[in-house]
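User: Second chain of the day. Same drill as before.
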Amino acid sequence: MTLNLIEDPWIAVRCRDGSRRTITPWQMALPEIVAPDWHRPDFDIACLELLIGLVFLADPPADVTDWKRRRSADPARLRARLAAFAPAFNLLGEGPRFLQDFEPIKGEESPPDMLFIDSAGANTARNNADLMVHRGRYPALDLPEAAMALYTFQAFAPSGGAGNRTSMRGGGPLVTLLDPREGQGSLWDLIWANVPCCQPGRVEDLPWMRPTRVSDTGRQSLPPEGALFAPEAFFGQPRRLRLVGEGDRVTGVIQRPYGTNYALWKHPLSPYYRMKPGTEWLPKHPRAGRFGYRNWLGIVAENKSDDLSELALCLRDWNGRQGGGSVIVAGWAMDNMKPRDFTLSVQPVLDLTDDGFLRLAGLIEAAEATGVALRGALDPVLAGGEAREAERETFFAETETRFQAHLDTIRAGGDPAAAWLTDLRTQAMGQFEKLAFASIETRETDRMQQIFEAWKFLGLAFAGYGKQGKAIFDALNLPLPEKKKGKAA
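Assistant: Same format as last time:
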């Protein structure tokens, strides 16, 4: 038995009335379908990427005018356009297999558990080191779940030992998706909002329809010359894999090293950065922990004074199509091969003037400088670096509401710099004093002196003194205090 990912129903979704059903890809265009529903957030995000990629492959808009003209869903047209790609989307069986090595490969068979990023690798399991990851959860998978796991793994592939390549965007990329829906929108509204303008692809453009481009000699695969994107951007194949099936289940995976080694590709659903002008663009990756305003720059907000970061194409294109909506931010935070956390957050679409973006960046940069100052001041109070970092995270969480209020001021054309400085001072000083002065009488005399010195210098930063004070005032475009002139000799 096999599964054809174009013709057969296999995608788990949620409907407008709250019910669940299983659909074929063309049914993403039905008005009652609202979201993927795999009960795993990484699968849900990867499924959105897959559906966007299928539309991009089979029937993308030619330009912005075409995008606007075809904004209303046309299920019959989508079904017809996808049908031509059905021969390339068999999960098992003879001939080419979806996202698998072109020819059968031999090697040790691993459980399908290996397709999950938060599963323990073989070495981790042997060493009993799977504290934050898991082993043995999936000895077998039904075909739909195996297909979704395979796509998720290839799209987000982390480091996997010698020769096992990361995804086109590195291990655990950051994903940003434009969600234009307000109220009763359908899944199609989200999918269509993120499809890049391009010409349709061809079956032969898919990497599993030709011999695998192995990279055992370090060979790299570059994007097609002159093409902004190619279908392979959504269907990259960094890992050499073959699924082993028994009846209607996948019971194993064979992996060989040195799959496609991607270089210089850009994915339209991820933000990028570079170390300095003229150097290579690199994909951004999420950091562990809560995603808030401190993470906005270069991800959901343009930094007009910085040419070292670039929003995902789907966000850059959106202002040319329509304003409003929200941004879904997601991705695995990785520590090399180890997953630390899965980020899933919804942030606003920021439709500001150039001056507005500059003011917004100033607020965020001032908060970052304040966080550094607070962390440094807590050195004599909290011994551990992790404890001080946790306090910095608390600082950003506690200032989130006030930041949102100041964002409204910026949208209205105002400048909240002075008010934000007051908010930063109130939170940082209050947070320091609560930690440092509780039971201070029990501390040793020299430690008490260090705490009072740290408190004094933290306060001076909010008057514009010191390295962090200058950073705060410069970010907010506030005048620094005048330097006192020395006495005449």
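The CA atoms of residues 68 and 458 lie 53 Å apart.

User: Great, on to the next one.
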